[in-house]
Amino acid sequence: MRYSETGFNLEVDLTRGNIERVATDPKLTELYLGGLGTSTKILWDRVPPDVEPFSPDNLLIFSTGLLVGTPAVGCNRTIVSTISPQTRLMAYSMMGGFWAPELKHAGYDKLILRGKSSKLVYLWINDDKVEIRDAAHLQGKGATETAELIRAELKEPNAQVSAIGLAGENKVYFASIEQGRSSASRGGIGAVMGDKGVKAIAVRGTKDVYVARPDEFIELCNEVLRYIKVRKDNPIPGVMPILAGLGSPQEMAVHDEKWHTENFAWGNSRTRRKGFWTEDVAKQWTESMESMRTRLISCHNCPMKCGATISVPGLPTYMMKCFSKLTYTMAAMSNLDFGLRIAQRATEYGVDGFSAPQVMAFALELYEAGILTDNDFPGMPSETEERFYWLLDRIVRREGIGDVLANGTHWAAEEIGNGAEEYAHNNIKKHEQLPLKLGMLNPIYFLMYSTGEKINITQIEGNFPQAPFPTREEREEFVKDWVQVPDEKIKEYFLNWELRGEYSIPQYPGAEATCEIVEWQETMHYIDDATGMCAGLSSFPLKPPYHIHNLPTLISAATGIDIDEDELKQVARRNRNLVRAVNIRRGMRRKDEKPPEDHWKRRFPELETELLDTYYRFKGWNQQGIPTEESLHELSLDYVAEDFLSRGILTKGEGAPSEEASVKGSKN
Which residue ranges does the record assign to the Aldehyde ferredoxin oxidoreductase N-terminal domain (predicted)? Predict the structure, then answer.
């Protein structure tokens, strides 16, 4: 018997209409655990590097994590993987809610879509019965509306539905897949779903998921719950309110947005907005949020209420979480009432809540600069808020200038030309990031932004504080119960971290320390993405209930696989290097590894070169960021090394570069 997983994937060939239930190799579970790890192995094996995102040969994989469907608190993530139309690299996005547990209970660890349907369809997975159904009547419908119509049509109110809106149907490069209280939105995976002709996937599962040692496993889960209760009553002092507790950023529960509104440069705001957050603004925002926030909500098997139902007068109720509360508001430099209203329409259309508002603000910047003119915006309203609605409608329909903007700021700027490239300033690897405008370079974030395969900072950062605490006493108090650190020296790094500019971390005790901190945060995220754990209880918050010291025991009790801390770290490194290998094979190199151009006011090129050189050495990569043959062998990724050698990406016998070679290579 397979524990904690079903041992079967569901494969659907949309071109032929063929449906298969495919047994999986348990050895792959030991090597990659599940979720992102095993999905990446499938993409490596079956999607060659010359396959285009909108090719029938591209795969769209919906994966449950290894612990999804078990009583593990907060394990509910759907990991959606494909090749991105925006970056042309591997995209993977995490979706909360209830969909993945339902798929696991239906008897499948993954749903793999290949080919393309000749007409719009939706899938109905009802335990062992799987159907491809006509969706012509759903064409043009909103994502939430589609889910409601499908449940009514199936007469199955408990079906969990993932759907695309008009943006996905029209292959907008930043289209999302919406699923009730969560979405998979980064990288344009909704566009790939639309390209395959799939409007929605409905699933209902009634089967059991077994664990290897139930009594031990339940006690471990209860320990997590007890810890969550303690943390709820004891938020961490001295950090911003949304990070003081557990869960994904608690944007729905808190009202203090002084830090965000004055330090983030959302959309077309290029300067800090000191003094914006007045008592009047705070009162207005609080009133808007409390009048429209119907209730706080959780995902499957989780006590954290990170999301909320939003009821805007005159509009259908929808669900929201995290920074979507702010992105549209700040892009238009408007109030929260506007932000909550336009987010409802954007959710129905199915667009990414980070990219979409930036694309619209980018368009208006080009208009103000004279790069785009009235001829490009026939009939556009004069008022800012109405302009955002007008642009959103045209982008998702790919009408007029909206057809250009629908490809995101990088590709739009390239097509528009005439200096537009300077305004596409917030991309990494052609992908819009959180639109920040901060002061001094942060070395840890420099590395995470530059090198993270997720290409999304909120899925890279985590357990190490974002800024030093002002006094030594505060830092000493913080480390007293900091059991989550993988090594005691991390505590020393934090204790000696002072507010003294760009040299605080890398020069104490060196850039190597920065790499160790980044490695820790990456490791936690890759474990979460393999197990299906919500980052809000593991890799994202300070002092989470799940950490490197108890996760091996939890995984072992669930699966029956003996695994210790070192072995779990090795799995995380293996998965991280395999994702990188997919991207390296698709052409990604060192030149692509850089943060947004004006993310920090003060930049230090020599320091940034040193950090990147040191990080590459630390990871066992050469100076192009390519894992060496030796490193790949240590991770049991010899098949990757063989492929790289055959393509000339690596040279036989190439090992980890010396420090001297690294410095020399960085100057070339």
Answer: 8-207
The domain that holds 144 is classified in CATH as 3.60.9.10
Amino acid present at 349: Y
Beta bridge partners of 182: 179
Geometric angle at alpha carbon 74, from 70 and 77, rounded to 5°:
85
Question: What are the phi and psi torsion angles at 83 (to 5°)?
Answer: -100, 130
> Is residue 632 over pLDDT 80?
yes
CB 69 within 8 A of CB 50: no
Between CA 632 and CA 571 the distance in angstroms is 12
Q: Based on the structure, what is the number of domains in the chain?
A: 2
| Burial annotation 523-532 (CB, 10 A radius, 16+ → b, else e) | bbbbbbbbbb
In a domain, 406, yes or no: no
pLDDT by residue (tens digit) across 326-379? 889 888 888 899 999 999 999 999 999 999 999 999 999 999 999 999 999 999
Using alpha carbons, list the distances in angstroms from residue 585 to 320, 516, 582.
Answer: 36, 26, 5
Q: What distance in Å separates the CA atoms of residue 201 and residue 150, rounded to the nearest whole number?
A: 9
- How far apart (Å, rounded) are the C-alpha atoms in residues 328 and 320? 13
Q: Domain range spanning residue 665?
A: 620-668
Residues 6+ apart with CB under 8 A from 226: none
Does 659 fall in a domain?
Answer: yes
The CA-atom distances, in angstroms, between 288 and each of 251, 274, 344 are 14, 22, 14
Is 251 within the bounds of a domain? no
Which tens digits make up the pLDDT trace of 294-313?
Answer: 999 999 999 999 999 999 99
Provide CB contacts within 8 A for 409, sequence distance 6+.
Answer: 355, 358, 359, 362, 423, 424, 426, 427, 432
- Which sign does the torsion angle of CA 562, 565, 566, 570 carry? positive
Specify burial of residue 565 (Cβ count, 10 A radius: 0-12, 13-18, 19+). Answer: middle
The pLDDT value recorded for residue 580 is 98
Structure tokens at 387: 């302009």
pLDDT of residue 263: 67
Predicted confidence band of residue 628 (pLDDT cuts 50, 70, 90): very high
